[in-house]
Specification:
mainly alpha; two-stranded antiparallel ribbon; 5 helices; 2 strands
Length: 100
């Protein structure tokens, strides 16, 4: 039986490929696919961004090789960055509630 972390990894891979295979080249996210992924899977984060061009800026930041697409490795950097930010919020919350 897969562990909790293995399930999380599988989920991340599955979500990426669900959106990466919608339009155009399979295995990469176009700007449109990235927008749909973020609107559906990261809606809380996207709504917290007051900038309507947030997805375009994120796309530019993620597209390390400049090919106009986001591959899985580039996508993982988004997930890692958001996870780090969430973990920092988690630690602040735990500190405020007096939990370790």
């Amino acid at each position: 039986m897969p562990s909790e972390l293995e399930k999380a990894m599988e989920s991340m891979i599955t979500v990426f490929h669900r959106y990466a295979s919608k339009y155009g080249e399979s295995g990469t996210l176009s700007r449109k696919e990235l927008r749909e992924l973020m609107e559906n899977e990261l809606s809380g984060f996207l709504q917290s961004q007051k900038d309507p061009a947030a997805v375009d800026k994120i796309m530019k930041d993620l597209d390390a090789n400049g090919d106009g697409k986001v591959d899985f490795e580039e996508f993982v950097s988004l997930v890692v960055g958001l996870s780090i930010a969430c973990e920092q919020c988690y630690k602040l919350h735990m500190k405020k509630t007096g939990k370790k």
